[in-house]
Specification:
By secondary structure, the protein is α/β, with parallel strands linked by helices. It is about 35% helix and about 25% strand. A 7-stranded parallel beta sheet has the order 13-14-11-15-16-10-17, sandwiched between helices. A 6-stranded parallel beta sheet has the order 18-30-29-21-28-27, with helices on both faces. Strand 3 and strand 4 (about 50-60) form a beta hairpin. Helix 2 packs antiparallel against helix 13 (about 345-355). The chain binds adenosine-5'-diphosphate and zinc ion (2 copies).
Amino acid sequence: MPTENSHAPLYRIRVALAVYVYDTFDYTVSAEQYKQAKVGARVLVSFGRQNLVGVITQKVDPNEVFTGQFKLKAITELLDDEPILDSQLLTLLTWSAQYYQFPIGEVMQSALPGLLRQGRALDILFHLWKITPHDDPDALLKRSQKQYDAYQVLKLHPQGTTENILNLSGVETATLKALEKKGLVECCLEPHDFTPTTVQLAQVPLTANADQKYAIQQILKAQHHYQTFLLDGLTGSGKTEVYLQVMFEVLQQGKQVLVLVPEIGLTPQTVARFKSRFHCDVALLHSGLNESKRLQAWQHAQTGKASIIIGTRSAIYTPLPELGLIILDEEHDLSYKQQEGFRYHARDVALYRGHLQGCPVILGSATPSTESYHLAELGKLHLLELNQRAGVAVLPKMHIIDLKIAKKKHGISQTLIEQIKQTLERKEQVLIFLNRRGYAPILMCESCAWQANCPHCDAHFTLHTQPYAYLHCHHCGTINRLPEHCPECKKQSLKTIGLGTAKLEEHLHELFPHNEVIRVDRDSTSRVGSWQKIYDRIQQNKPSILLGTQMLAKGHHFPHVTLVAILDIDSGLLSVDLRAPERTAQLIIQVAGRSGRGEHKGSVYLQTLRPDHPMLTTLIEKDYRAVAKQMLAERKIAMLPPYRYAALVRVDSKDRAYSQQYLAEIAQQLREMAADLIDIWGPIPAPMERKAGRYRAHMVILSADRARLHFYLRQWWQHVVHLPRQHQLRLSIDVDPQEFS
Ligand code: ADP
Ligand code: ZN
Ligand code: ZN
């Protein structure tokens, strides 16, 4: 055995596997395999009793003496002839694993489409089925309906398409083979290397205004090296036009552009704006794709076939051989931070990727995060402002309604009802924002004060009425039947408190019986394609009321909306979360930004019990930038992020005392390692202590010295994850947390 003879060369490769272990694993290979193996390619190995797909991270020098105690296993099979992750991406992934304290194998796997994680061969998708020109296909198709149908599907793909896509369209492989025999279709190999094509305009760009022109010039000056920009532009100020004009210059050089958008922002409308401007291949990467479509889009990006890649958070890890520009739109959006498992922030990863690639990165928003403003203050982001609405539109005027004194009907103030009426009479559209789906957030008994609470969480059940009445916990997913009478006092005196979108929809129908009410929330858009249908209805330009949650608030361009009403933001004003005021201000501005985007002037009405809240008054009297400035000043005094770096450690277990005691113990160990460098807050119970039957606690670790914080965190965390635990305790660390809950 080579392991026992130190003179014979030992051929080994190092492999990252998706197992919850922080290290990579060594496997032996033959001399022949060693020659073939490429770093960044996949390999099949046995691990315990499983067969796993891993990524080769290193070819170990054969002369290096093996000192491990265990006998190494041989790999099962090399899966790729060429690397599927290039060296830059491997560097980015390794950095991410270290920065976010997550196992490298898991991080690498999260960069791969599902089918590649399963070991699927990469090149089969490059076989395309295509119609062969034929004089009289119908004569040959007469006798088989199946073949006829398949032929019609193929006609829809003049450039040819993959067997996967055809199978998904109901065409069986056997049918394709039969058609091939008849000489009606052929299966050909799509060329593997795509030479960069120069991109042409499909649409004339708008004439940029002065602010836009300046921004475009500044960014283009930096187009061949790493520079980062914060494009701070009011809602509707034409940020997208700036992106498009910068993109054109970059695309013309045969480079690729990566555009990241928030999860909800990836609407057909957004995609259409990018697609219709240029003649080029666009790859879309988002959570709604099935696995074969995802793999296809990923390959188009990875081979350079696609020039524009539009995707949500995880698209930041797509291999892009010709990357020339990264754009991250709505950079403040929370969906850029993964909130479970590998808790990375796509914005920070994007900045680092731009650095590795030596290309510019644009962060754009109407409501930039305090972190980005802080980086701009430090000169690390180049601030570019767009200070007017593009075209003819002007910013809407904001009004506050004091709910303590206002006359109301169904939770809507009389003033607002009057405004809605007038807007509809002018044949314009109204948008009402209520961030609470379902019928009502609380069900209680009027005679004994019993409340319907989730048995597993510290939370109320939400009452839903569609398609039938039931109680639903939005935190753990528990569903219960609606009781017919109070379970405590047995009286029939149950009533709902508070307003959800479904109940508001009923009230609006009653108040405005002659107008259409269009509700947009997770419940009304859960079926595939329903969002698109709703979108089309909105664009029909009837005088209607759009009613919805966050889904309706972000990024959309509804040119006929002139009145926006925000019904309830008080929970945001009262929340104890460090970032709650920032998020609430962002939400208000984003929702308000849906008003008056067309030719007609818009207005915004905001109902609140706290009209004198300092954040609100600054926002109304000044603007979002003033609010951000104020929040930064407060954070500086309190030495909170971004003025110090934070990590949040969360635990949950079945035992309340144990959760906190465990945290206290590991906190003590960290203090002993790095007492002078760090500050630990907690442990304290999480704001919702019990969730899904588990008791949650957390602590915040803060330090002004990022590099040393990370140095100690890493050592400490490696130690902590290997400690024994009881009561099924689960443990996680969140570096640069966005939510303290
Ligand atoms: P943002 O991305 O900042 O929200 P958009 O790019 O969506 O803004 O622009 C808002 C509207 O203004 C769009 O309808 C867009 O076509 C239009 N627009 C943008 N720039 C110009 C311009 N320079 N001249 C005329 N209209 C413009
Ligand atoms: Zn009762
Ligand atoms: Zn629950």
